[in-house]
Specification:
By secondary structure, the protein is an alpha/beta fold. It has 17 helices and nine strands. Strands 1-9-8-7-6-5-2-3-4 form a nine-stranded mixed β-sheet. Helix 2 runs parallel beside helix 7 and helix 9 runs parallel beside helix 10. The longest helix is centred in the C-terminal third of the chain and has 19 residues.
């Protein structure tokens, strides 16, 4: 059975008695900093000089310092910069700011699990990861609720790293919903696999391929967009609220029957074989090393794929249709 911790399992006073540095003020960083502050924790934010996030953090009433200065002042150092930036931060003075007795905290195990960052001895190393975007974690906290989260200990120098991790999770409001104990390896590998096989890679390519199939067969791109992308939210919401069986109960009998007879023709044993290959490449570090090498070499392939994706017909049609939907909170257009 999985071990899940709630408010009654965590001592909030542990993190309230520490000095916390949140390094990064993006989606997760702002939620961690603000939730902890509102939970009575001594928080400062660490940012690189010239960061565009500095003004936002200061406007929120937070103390902002340069990254290494914030880390040196604190005894709980929380690394929430993008995965691709953490290795450089570590080698650019952060490692020197982390001393025995400190706790080094991550929101994702990527850099530690794959060896891009090697924490020193004498330091507690754990992760606390809300299972939601940061703005939702913040919103739920403000409403007196919380989102589920994960906690994992990589190095227990003090003998109390897990207790501090649970306390930190309570400060974020995660123990209101439940915090699952895991490992750095499990968190990292399942997170990467979920992103690649389902949440990002799987869903986006399934949607694009189904859109292309209808358009190539002569149907209007707008009709294809509505059927293959727009209505996806309705299905996902039902699965989120009640599971796959609830979704099947909620849709029409025709749709449910089509699910049973056609779904396995799209996602089948060959699909699972590809998923097993993807998982193996995550587990043995192939993906992590290839990804980091791509970024460190300038990211030419990455940027090319990003630019191509923005010009796909489904994106062009989608922008036009969403402009006619006032009920959608349309995000600022990307560059």
């Amino acid at each position: 059975m999985a071990t899940i911790y709630y408010d009654t399992d965590a001592d909030l006073s542990l993190i309230q008695g520490r000095k916390v540095a949140i390094l990064g003020y993006g989606s997760q960083g702002h939620a961690h900093a603000l939730n902890l502050r509102d939970s009575g924790v001594d928080v400062r934010v660490g940012l690189r000089p010239g960061s565009s996030s500095r003004a936002k953090a200061e406007e929120a009433g937070l103390t902002v310092k340069d990254t290494n200065d914030a880390a040196a002042e604190a005894d709980v150092i929380v690394v929430l910069a993008p995965d691709t930036a953490q290795k450089g931060m570590w080698n650019d003075g952060l490692a020197d700011a982390v001393t025995p007795g400190d706790a080094l905290v991550f929101g994702h195990g990527f850099n530690v699990h794959f060896g891009f960052i090697e924490p020193p001895e004498g330091v507690d190393v754990f992760l606390v990861a809300p299972k939601s975007p940061g703005h939702i974690a913040r919103r739920m906290y403000e409403q007196g609720q919380g989102v589920p989260g994960l906690v994992a200990v990589h190095q227990d120098a003090s003998g109390t790293a897990l207790e501090l991790g649970k306390s930190y999770a309570a400060g974020l409001g995660l123990t209101r919903a439940g915090v699952l104990q895991t490992t750095f390896g499990e968190e990292t590998e399942t997170d990467l696999f979920g992103e690649q096989a389902v949440l990002c890679g799987g869903v986006s390519h399934l949607v694009q391929a189904s859109f292309e199939t209808l358009v190539e067969a002569g149907y209007q791109p707008e009709a294809a967009y509505f059927e293959c992308l727009h209505e996806l939210k309705l299905i996902v919401d039902m699965i989120y609220e009640g599971g796959i069986s609830w979704m099947r109960y909620s849709v029409s009998t025709t749709a449910e029957y089509g699910d049973y007879v056609s779904g396995p023709r799209v996602v089948n044993e060959s699909s699972k074989a590809a998923m097993r290959e993807i998982l193996a490449e995550i587990q043995d570090g192939t993906f992590a090393n290839t990804f980091m090498a791509e970024i460190e070499s300038g990211g030419e392939f990455f940027e090319k794929k990003r630019a191509e994706a923005k010009q796909h017909q489904i994106e062009v049609v989608g922008r036009e249709l969403r402009a006619m939907m006032p009920f959608i909170d349309t995000p600022t257009e990307m560059d």
